[in-house]
Structures are given as structure tokens and as C-alpha cells.
Amino acid sequence: MIKAGIIGVTGYTGSELLRLLLNHPQVIIHKVASRSNAGQPVSLVHKHLLGQTDLVECDIDARNFTDCDVVFLAVPHGASSALAKELVAAGVKVIDLGADMRLRDIAVYQKWYQAEHAWPEILPQTVYGLPELYREEIVKSILIANPGCYPTSAILGLAPLLKAGMVQTDSIVIDSKSGVTGAGKTLTPQSHFPDMNDNLAAYKIGAHRHTPEIEQELSALAGEPVLVTFNPHLIPMNRGILSTITVKAKGTLSQKVLDDCYQEFYRHEYFIRLRNQDNLPNTKWVQGSNYCDIAPVWDERTGRIIVVSVIDNLVKGASGQAVQNMNLMLGVEETSGLKYNVIYP
Amino acid sequence: MIKAGIIGVTGYTGSELLRLLLNHPQVIIHKVASRSNAGQPVSLVHKHLLGQTDLVECDIDARNFTDCDVVFLAVPHGASSALAKELVAAGVKVIDLGADMRLRDIAVYQKWYQAEHAWPEILPQTVYGLPELYREEIVKSILIANPGCYPTSAILGLAPLLKAGMVQTDSIVIDSKSGVTGAGKTLTPQSHFPDMNDNLAAYKIGAHRHTPEIEQELSALAGEPVLVTFNPHLIPMNRGILSTITVKAKGTLSQKVLDDCYQEFYRHEYFIRLRNQDNLPNTKWVQGSNYCDIAPVWDERTGRIIVVSVIDNLVKGASGQAVQNMNLMLGVEETSGLKYNVIYP
Amino acid sequence: MIKAGIIGVTGYTGSELLRLLLNHPQVIIHKVASRSNAGQPVSLVHKHLLGQTDLVECDIDARNFTDCDVVFLAVPHGASSALAKELVAAGVKVIDLGADMRLRDIAVYQKWYQAEHAWPEILPQTVYGLPELYREEIVKSILIANPGCYPTSAILGLAPLLKAGMVQTDSIVIDSKSGVTGAGKTLTPQSHFPDMNDNLAAYKIGAHRHTPEIEQELSALAGEPVLVTFNPHLIPMNRGILSTITVKAKGTLSQKVLDDCYQEFYRHEYFIRLRNQDNLPNTKWVQGSNYCDIAPVWDERTGRIIVVSVIDNLVKGASGQAVQNMNLMLGVEETSGLKYNVIYP
Amino acid sequence: MIKAGIIGVTGYTGSELLRLLLNHPQVIIHKVASRSNAGQPVSLVHKHLLGQTDLVECDIDARNFTDCDVVFLAVPHGASSALAKELVAAGVKVIDLGADMRLRDIAVYQKWYQAEHAWPEILPQTVYGLPELYREEIVKSILIANPGCYPTSAILGLAPLLKAGMVQTDSIVIDSKSGVTGAGKTLTPQSHFPDMNDNLAAYKIGAHRHTPEIEQELSALAGEPVLVTFNPHLIPMNRGILSTITVKAKGTLSQKVLDDCYQEFYRHEYFIRLRNQDNLPNTKWVQGSNYCDIAPVWDERTGRIIVVSVIDNLVKGASGQAVQNMNLMLGVEETSGLKYNVIYP
Fold this sequence. Notes:
4 copies of one chain form a homotetramer. Helices cover about 30% and strands about 20% of the residues of chain A. Chain A is of the alpha/beta class.
């Protein structure tokens, strides 16, 4: 059995890691910790887990986790670098669900996060944990930067087009809609129930920190620098991201060419499900699961391709993808613990 | 592997059986059928299941299911009796999720359902599939009447008190609040999104068909006839029932006596979790799971006991309980396939 | 024009007073204040009011409000007594939306609120501002204790029965469900969107501070001491309270007798709308309005009466009722500014 | 008093017309009709209106409405042309809330609606009832084509830019999110509560019938043919549309230039409220009101302008705009009956 640790178990991604790992046939959760609840039973912190685990939280100290095979870091950005450094030094495999390891260019990190980085020299070597693009590197890695939720939906939605060179790379507009768990567990006026319920808002238009992460990966796919307009929104629902991506084609296409491109690109991917105009993805259809559902649509009138890409932000957008990465890093079947967990409605 | 069949797979309880059985380590879903979708792949009917199953629906004909070990009936009331009769005759174990087999007194059935019964002579022999009360009978049974959702929450909430003879049996008031999946998949004005969202309604006050089912089981527990006032409500959420049960104690109690009574009664029950006044159950804490969370509260001022009892109406209130019954009937560990499926939030 | 002031304008009831008074043909809002936003334009604090008002908040100091005809106090309990005392001394009429003036017995206040009272000698003289019961007193009063939201729904639902002596007064069970604005604007884990959305919870079972207020008024109606069991719940919606009240009849009644009792009692009341079993009230049907919709149902089987009573907690349960009281106190038509404001859906 | 009639009063826009007109100081609702409820009191059809109106529905026959000053048509597309023709002939002013009169080019109508038109010769003469663009024509008109909900948000969001010639007209991408009332009162699987709650879906990507309406008006503003990509979505909320519009600037701009452009264009418009990046509009801030809140944002990095435009789809997107048009046509103050009706939260 794999001995797993979770540092930062109080938030929604921490809680989701618990759900997935408790149900994982090859894993035992060995240690958990959070800043605020050291010494507390996990089932008091996460009341829905009463009866499912006797785990008690320990202090956030890397030394408590050196006997784990793998440690998941689900801590605020800025807090994971030091922990990762210490754990990697002790030979523990690390999957960081935060943003610290995702941007390979330290200058880009500093510009968007306005912060120093505790371990800049590691950045060129970290692996971006999107298995559909970097499976081989993940298998060999000991330190994974788990992708952000928005970037996962956007990059998977665009990868086939950019790889095939079918689109004008300066025409990409990504309009993303996220459930409120994406904004985290910290209490804010925007996520107070009466103010968010039956409401809808755009935020950080053209200015969200996931933008450079999306651009880094799209540029790698395109083989040239790509800038995007990324517009995020909060939706009155708990889980799910739907990204509507609009892009200008190079010349004229057809729906057939488009469908073939996506089917070919994703033909071996268990967690990618292709849909179409008559069957546009609903966020609810992936709820609780590690799927990314994608529908590419050809718009003859305007020469644009519109791609609708849907994930559960806490699963494929965070903890599920982290478990998928763990499976790859530790030599377990990639879908283990992740197969039958769509819950509908 | 157990070969399971599902008749009536289109509705929410049918879909939930698919979710639970696809993930069950000792079960293979052998056949499925529904009235409206014969010949269709299940993943077209339930779009969230794309990629999870290749099952194609067959006709609703008992003869198609005689090679199953167990068949779940998730059909409207009135439709299951004939199917059950034919399947039982063929030696197939049957779990009926509908109402046809639940009332042991045919006159009570006819009064509340205003219908003839296709197999009245079986009623005195059917087993009411509430494992916490009837485990031994379930193990030996070939035909289970799976309890209704409201009755499950109400009966489990009251059983310890009635068994102990601690309450005045003519004082029981059950106020139940249900998510909208409880009203089924049939389109109605009440469950049209704009009319139900951000809204709340009582319905069938003192007149809901689950009333006689609750009274039958409470009478059995009390050893005397019990009538209850049962008031159901629809809540703008998908899953979950919360029943607030108010009852007059015989004489004076204390919170300690009350807690001891419940802890003793449920001490061996995996799916019952006891909570308390400082920790009153939320429906979300059992979402997706087979738990029933119960908090009994002593109200010194009025001499009343208030019990808050919470389930997921589609799991412990329907399909999960059906799988629990199947596990018992077919000699599998009772919690198999049902252990780690709370999803929060 | 009536010159009105609002102290405590930041919360939901303050905001709702603004909505109603801006639209009131005989009122001008003269002054507003809150603890946290002195010096700020109201339309910055309440962003939905941009373009509707140029009001700027002043300090919370009674002396700023002595040139008003009437002042609404929408401040936390404990904070209104001193303000009310000063304003009344200056000849200003006061409507207190908080709890400080509602309980006529200081001992009861101290027991339930665990606090000293800044102006106990006024308690026997305050008028409980429920116009359907105390209209004549309100007309002559200069200080109104505006009822709580739960008590409004419960007392209006029960008043005809208690006045008529038709029920056993020791049998009253009140099960109330409230939208989340009822819990106020203060950020709490329970009202964080992802934790409350698609969820349902009971809270303060048998222990809510509105209990003594309900009992005080029911006792006055019955002419004898009445204790009730009051069970409040939070519902994933913004506005609305639905109270389901169950009570044992004295002897046998009929639906006809029951309907006559309510129609007679409320025959002159504009804001009371009677409904019935076939037409049970929805909270959405009173959204934004000052209505209280009531349906009394006779349950022959158990000899109980079940009353469903519905209000918008921010209107008839708070700010609308306060405006109704103002209209009465200041000699304006009682329904002025309150007639056509149901918004559906 | 203006004598108003409503044909098609059963749906959400009909109900919203009732709310606004009952509260309008210069209007009396003279006649109402719908296909399905002739002979029924309106307060039975719309239960929230109990006590607010004694109106009884008459048959849908234009002759019943010839004694009205103005008639609102809120009927399905295809049904209003014949009614409008008859009413106009009788000298009655008509405001059509449906799509029949909006497209001036009959060929475009036939292509997108796949239907014959009952009164094609009127199309070149109808006035598109967007007062911010066509006020002078509306004042003189007797037949108004009331704009669609999506077009209202999109056109108002883009008008200043197109009029000023600041953008590349082939670069417009409109991503719109609508509450579920926008899909109407007809029961559908997509708007069944459990399937829509906590869910989000794109639909008719690049193929929605509001596209040609948007293009017609944007072309008129730009003085050249404009094609747009229009992507609509359904959001789990009742009311509100938020359109996120992305467009490439001609050359380099600044936030200041952009703000000036919008402030100048809308400086006399009561119902347009300008906001900004730090204060992006929420749909809830316009709930129940006739406002359109707009925030234009300059994205230096990509040379794009992003405009967020928000309305209540049932008010500024339908019935409120219709009342605004009526006010203009009948010489009443434009804001009459429409000023103070934001309801929050």
C-alpha cells in the first residue's frame, strides 16, 4: 500500500483528497496536517467524514511526513516551496496543488504573484502535472506542479487545435465559469450565501493569475508565444468549471475535420469524453468525477471554432488530477480510485 | 460475481443504482430495462455515464431477467407486483423500490393508493427492507419491500424511543423536508426550475402516502397502534431529507438518558451516525452516502424530545438501502460498495 | 412628507428599509447611519442602489436624528435601548427592528439574552408592532417593538385558533424554515455559499431566542401561559419563512369550522391572504411583499390542526412590517408603499 | 389613465408586465388574455397575485382589445403578426415582446426562424424598441418590436464602441449567461429543477436566434455589416443576463479613453449605470429593475476591450423595456413605474 500524506487538509481540495484516497484501493492515508487544526481529529474538521476515518492532524512540519511515499501539498501559494524542498530532499515524492511550481519562468511568477519565490532554482525542472500532455515526464518525476482548475479546462480544450496548428494563435478568448468552491473556503462577502445565491458575477477580467499558466502551456503546444484573453466568472453552484473558448481558424474547416482532430488527439485518454453541438456538456455530468468533457463546434458563418470544456474543479481541476498524477508516479494503474465516481444529479 | 438486473432504470433511483452497482466490487450489472428506452444505450439515457458502461436497455419483460441473481424494481407503484411475482416464481431474488409491497394490510394499501393490488396474497410475507430493524429476516428473504425515503428517516429517528417505551405514542409530529429529486424525474410545474429555485413549499399536509408506512412500522416497534401527523415539504436542493420529529416524553428524562438510549440501540450499526444539539446534522454531510445521521435533543421546558434525522433520499432513502439489502440477501459484507461515498460540498 | 431616519443601514433589514422607503409616496429618507460606514455614500455600501439615492451615512448618534419624524433602529440587540431612549426623549417616534423592546418581562429578556437591559422601565409600555393584533395601540404609540421574523409567521398563523379557544395550548409545535438572509449579513461558515447551497440544517432546536417572544404573544391571545416547541431551520434560499404549526384541537372540528374561524378573524386584513390544502402557500408567492399567506388544515385522523404560514422574512418579518407600523403611527394609509411589490419568480 | 391590454399573460413576461403595470401610476390594466386560461381569474393563474387584481382573462381575440390605448403582445413567435396587424388597423398602439417584428429583412427572418411571416410588409417600418438608441422613433411609433433579452445586453454593451468606430468589427465574441426564466415557462428536461440546479450548460453555440438581431443592430451602429459569435449559457438562477463581450480595439487605447467614450454616450440615460473593473456588475444588483449595468475594461496585454453588461432578463430584457417604450409612446415620463424596483438580495 502507498503511504500518502496531505499537508493542508482543511480546505476543499484537502477534503476532496481525503474522499478520493479513502476510497483508493492501493492507498493508505498515513499523515495529515493543517495550520489551524493540529491535534484535531479529521472527522471534527470535516464533519461529513464522521465514521470514515480516525486520522488526527499533526503539525505542518515536513519532518512529520518523511516516512510517506508521497505527499500532497494543498496550502496557499507561497507556502509550498519550502515544504516541497525539504520533502524532496528526504526522498519523498511531492504533488503540489498550489501555484508555486507551475510557472517555469521566475519573472512571470513574480510579476503575477507579486512575491518572492522560496525555491526558484527548481522551476525549470518541475513537471506540469497534466497527464494528457506530460504523461511520460510525470512517470519519472518526483515533484509535480498540479495544474490550476481553469488552466486544466482551457488547455485540454485547446491542445488538439494548437498542436495541429489549425488556429490563429492571437485570437484566443477564454470565457470561464466556475462554481464557488473554486473561490475556496475563506469567508468573503462575495461568497456569502445570500449575496451569491441566484446571482452571477465576472471578476478579475483579463487579470486572473491563471492567465500566465494557460499561456505557458498553450505556447509550448503552439511552438510560439501565445497571449490569451481570459475572463473568469462565479456561478451560483458548488462544483464545476465550464470554459467556452472561441478561436479563429486558419482558413476554412468543417465539423468533420474538427471532430477527427479531437478524436485522434484524445483517442487513448480515459478521462477525456468528446461530445458535440447536439450534446453540449453540462458541468453536472462530470460532478464528482475526473472527467473532462469537451465539445468542439465549427461556426461556418464566422470562421471560428468554439470549444466547450467542462470539469469538476475539485476533481480533474485539483484533487482528482493529483491522484491521477500519484498513480502515474507510483506505478499504479492510472485510473485507480478514479473510475466510477460521477454523482448525478 | 453477483448478476444484477434493474427494471426501471430511467429515473433517479434507477440512475443511482447504476452509480452504486458499477462501483460495487462483487456485482456485475447484467441487464437493465425501462419502459421508454428499450434498445437504447444506458449512456445515452444517462449522459453522465458516457464511458462508464456499454449496457443497452432491453424490454421490460420479467423473462429477460430470469438469469439474474437479483433484480431491482424501480417502477411506478402498481407496476411492480406482477413483475415481482414472475421473477420470484423463477427463483430470482427481488428488491422492490416502489410502494407495492410495503404495506402488510391490503385494506390500508387500497385506502391510501386507491388501487387494486396485483399480488395481495404476498403482502403478509414480504420483508420490510430496513436492515437496522429487520436484518435477520432480510438475510433469509427472496422478496424485499425497500422502504420509502421519508419513512426511512422517520422510523430510524424514532425506533429507539418507541422500542424503549419512552414516549407518548399519540404525540408524534414528523416534519420532513425533501430535496426535489424526491419528487421524481417527471416534469411538473412545481419542479420547474424558476418556480422551485429560491422557493419552499409544504405539500400533502397530513395526507402523504408514506404516512401509513410510517405508522405500520412505528406500531410494530411500540407494540400498539400509532397514528402520526406527517408534514412533507419540498426544499430547493437536489438530494437529502431532514426530518424533525417532535414527541412528548413519558415523564421527565435527561439528555444523558436520551443519548444512552440511542447509542445502545445503534451501537453495531455502521450506517447510523449519532450527533447532538451542538452538531445538528446537515443533509450535505450525508450527500451521496448511505448514512442516516440522527441527533436526539431533550427539551426540558416542554417535556418533549426533538429528533433530527437526515439521509440522502436517493441512497439510504432508496438505492443505497436497496444495495445494503442485496448485500445481506446474497451473503456479501453488508457495507460492500457503500463505504466511502460521501461527497462534500 | 414624513422625514424618516434609519440607524443601522448596512444590514439586510436596513437595505430593505431603503428599498421600501425610496418607493414610498409620503416619505423622504432624511438621515441614515451605520457603525461601519459613516461618511460613505449609501450607494457604495449597497451597490444595487447606485443611481437611486445620494444619501451619505452619518455617525450613529441619536442627536443626528432628532429632526426626523420617525427613526428605524436596525442595530444588533443590546444597541437599540439607549438610542431609543434618547430619541423618544427628543419627541421622535421610534420603531425598533431589534429584540430589545419585545419582551415585556425583564426577567425573561435576561434569561434568554444573557444581558443587562439599558432601559428596562420602558418594557411594560412598549407596543408590540403586529398591526393585525395591536393596531389601536400602534396608532397611539411613539415607540414600537417591531416583531421578530419567526414570531410574525407563528403568531399570525395561530392567533385565530388561540383567540377562539379551539386548541389544546400545551400541544403547540412550530417547525420553521427560513431563508439565509434571516441569519444576517455577518460572514459565518454555515452561510458560506458552498456549505449552504444544496444543503439544509436545523439549528438551536428548542433553544432559539424567538421562543419567549412567541410564547408571550400566544399567552396573551390564549389568556393563559403557553409554552411551545419551536424548531428553526436554514433553507438554501434567500428570502422567506415557512412555519408549519401543528396543534391538537379541543374535540372534533371540521375544515369548514376552521376556515370560518380564520376568515372571520382576518376579514379586514389586507396583508393576510388565506389559502388551503389544495393551494398550500409557497414562500416565493410573497417574495418582496408584506403579505402573510396562511393555510389552516384539519387532520381528521389525528385530531390535529396543521397551519402553514408564510412570509418574506425581510418584509412582513422585518422592514415591511416596520413601514406598516410607521404608516399607522404617522396617520398615513396603512398599505401605503406596500401594495404591489410581490416579485415572482 | 392609460388603458393597457396584455395578450399572452400566462408566461413569465406576461406576469412581469402585470407586476410593473399594477404598480404604474398612470396605467390601468384593462384587459388580459391567454390561450390556455380564458375565463380564469388572473390570480388563479398567477397565485402570487392573490388579492392584487380581480382581472379575469378573456379570449385571445384582437377585437376584445380594440378599446385599449396600448396592447402588449407576449405570445410565441409566429403568433403576434396577425394580432398586431388587426390592432394597429383599429388604431391601438402595439408593443410586441416576441421576435416577429424585430428583423427588418424578411429573408433573415425566414432563414433563422424557418417560418413564413404573416405580415412581412410591415417589417421595414417597425421600430426596434431600444430607447437608448431609438428614442425619437419610438415616441412617434404605433408598433414597437421590443428587443430580445440577449440582444438588449449585447447591443447596449457595444453601442458606444461601434458608434465611435473604436473596434475591429470582425472580432466580436459575445458570451452570454442567462437565468432560467429566459428559457420560459414550458416544462423541459433541461429546466427540471434537479437537472438544472447546481449545474451549468452552454446551448445553441453559434446558432441562437438572437444572433441576427444582434448583428442587425450592431451593423446599423457600425455602418457596415457585422457578424458576431454569440454563445449563450443557462445558469442556475432565476433572473438575470450577464454578457461578457470581447472585441479587438483598433490600435491602442487606454482605460481613460474607454471610460470617457461610455460616459459620453450614456450621459443622459437613467437606466444605464456605468461600473468598472473594481466593481464589476453582478446580476443581482439589477434584479427586478430596468437597469443595464455596464463595465468596459481595457486589456493592455492583448489589445482587447472586455465589456461586462448586465440586465434583469424579465425587466430591461423584456417587460420593463416594454413599459419604458409604452411611456415614450404615450407621452408619460420615461421612468414612470420603473424607478425604485431593485430588490436585493
